[in-house]
């Protein structure tokens, strides 16, 4: 992460490279899936804090990754592409960086179906400018993905995030500075915490929630948990999942938080996240570059017990179990956890069609699952 005191370009830390890798991997799938299914609809990508498009040690910033993903997807899909054009909107407040970004992206060969727009403004003002244009994703209810990557805790008010997620098929990936927000809370009036935290969380609910956490680790976890709760309380948001980024000293730096409206989005985002977190714990640390992972949190028995406790004594449909697994476990679906529970006699499965083989969970055939009371 950079501050505005740096020059036009700066060095990308390992976690920055990992962040861009996640974004690029996801955009390949996002453009392809929506491009094959949304007939005649334009697709929109918004980079809310776009930067200069490159680093001193990395030629692909997030805007370049987006253009490459869009262009290669269009070429690969070919005449199976059903959607309309791809619109990429890059918002950058620093004038020198915005000019550098424009020069960088214009020089990259790309399809005539990709339209680029550069807004030299703050994230909030950039969205307002976009909204006032005759052709914009909000008026058209177009599929939209927004990458929101501010420098630090400020710059992306919850009111703006809430408004984004209220429109049609919208997904966001937010750089959420859990560490910085925790420090602002502890600094209190010296950091103008009341105004800043009201803006970040959309109201003053943080006062009671964060006051319950004394240790730093608990506080930062409380910050993230509250933000997740606020997102999941929005009418169109069903899926929220964080990816932890840590510094070279293995200290929490920030979280990448995904929020969306369809389970397929989070499933694909987890696949993208796992490309750089093979252990399954959804955490990336600069300190562990080149080192083997010490722990593997992809443990279906551990998370299976949590799943059982969530639904103990209830009869539940598969979709509800899937949503819980997506939001609260490392898994893309609950099947490995359900298999563990069935092997231990803790659930009973009611399915339709031919006789079901034990340990298999075809979502189209499972009618419901009974979670027993247990001991």
Structural description of this entry:
The relative contact order is 0.10. The protein contains 14 helices and 11 strands. It is an alpha/beta fold and 375 residues long. Strand 4, helix 6 and strand 5 form a beta-alpha-beta unit. The chain is globular, with a radius of gyration of 22 Å. Helix 1 runs parallel beside helix 2 and helix 12 crosses helix 14. The strands form 2 sheets. An 8-stranded mixed sheet has the order 3-2-1-4-5-7-6-8, with helices on both faces. Strands 9-11-10 form a 3-stranded antiparallel sheet.
Topology:
Elements: H1 14-37, E1 43-47, H2 62-77, E2 86-91, H3 95-106, E3 114-119, H4 123-131, H5 137-140, E4 144-148, H6 158-165, E5 170-176, H7 178-187, H8 193-201, H9 206-211, H10 216-232, E6 239-246, E7 252-260, H11 263-274, E8 283-285, H12 300-311, E9 315-316, H13 318-328, H14 335-343, E10 347-351, E11 366-371
Key features of this structure:
single chain; 375 residues; alpha/beta; eight-stranded mixed beta sheet; three-stranded antiparallel beta sheet; 14 helices; 42% helix; 17% strand
Rg on CA atoms, Å: 22 Å
Placed side by side, the strands forming the largest sheet appear as 3-2-1-4-5-7-6-8
Counting helices, strands and paired strands, the structural category is alpha/beta
Helix content class: 40-55%
Largest sheet: 8 strands, mixed
Mean pLDDT: 92
- Output the number of helix runs: 14
Q: Tell me the distance between the termini.
A: 49 Å
What is the number of strand segments? 11
């Amino acid at each position: 992460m950079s501050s505005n005191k740096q020059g036009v370009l700066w060095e990308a830390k390992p976690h920055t490279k990992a962040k861009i890798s996640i974004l690029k991997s996801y955009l390949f799938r996002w453009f392809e899936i929506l491009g094959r299914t949304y007939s005649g609809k334009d697709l929109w990508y918004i980079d809310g804090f776009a930067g200069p498009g490159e680093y001193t040690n990395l030629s692909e910033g997030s805007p370049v990754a987006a253009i490459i993903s869009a262009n290669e997807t269009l070429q690969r899909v070919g005449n199976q592409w059903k959607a309309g054009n791809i619109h990429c909107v890059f918002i950058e407040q620093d004038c020198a960086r915005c000019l550098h970004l424009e020069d960088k992206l214009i020089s990259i060969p790309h399809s005539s179906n990709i339209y680029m727009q550069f807004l030299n403004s703050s994230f909030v003002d950039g969205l307002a400018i976009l909204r006032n244009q005759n052709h914009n994703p909000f008026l058209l209810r177009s599929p939209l993905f927004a990458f929101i990557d501010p420098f630090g805790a400020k710059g992306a008010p919850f009111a703006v995030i809430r408004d984004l997620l209220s429109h049609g098929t919208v997904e966001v990936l937010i750089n959420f500075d859990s560490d910085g927000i925790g420090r602002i809370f502890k600094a209190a009036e010296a950091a103008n915490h009341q105004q800043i935290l009201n803006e970040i969380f959309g109201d003053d609910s943080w006062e009671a929630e964060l006051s319950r956490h004394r240790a730093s680790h608990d506080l930062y976890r409380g910050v993230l948990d509250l933000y997740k709760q606020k997102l999941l309380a929005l009418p169109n948001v069903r899926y929220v999942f964080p990816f932890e980024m840590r510094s070279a000293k293995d200290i929490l730096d920030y979280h990448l938080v995904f929020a969306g409206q369809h389970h397929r989005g989070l499933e694909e985002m987890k696949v993208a996240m796992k490309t750089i977190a093979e252990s399954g714990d959804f955490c990336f640390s600069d300190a562990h570059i080149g080192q083997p992972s010490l722990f593997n949190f992809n443990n279906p028995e551990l998370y299976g017990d949590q799943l059982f406790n969530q639904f103990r004594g209830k009869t539940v449909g598969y979709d509800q179990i899937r949503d819980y697994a997506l939001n609260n476990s490392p898994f893309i679906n609950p099947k490995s956890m359900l298999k563990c529970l069935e092997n231990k006699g803790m659930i009973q499965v009611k399915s339709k069609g031919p006789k079901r083989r034990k340990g298999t969970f075809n979502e189209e055939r499972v009618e419901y699952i009974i979670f027993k009371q247990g001991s």
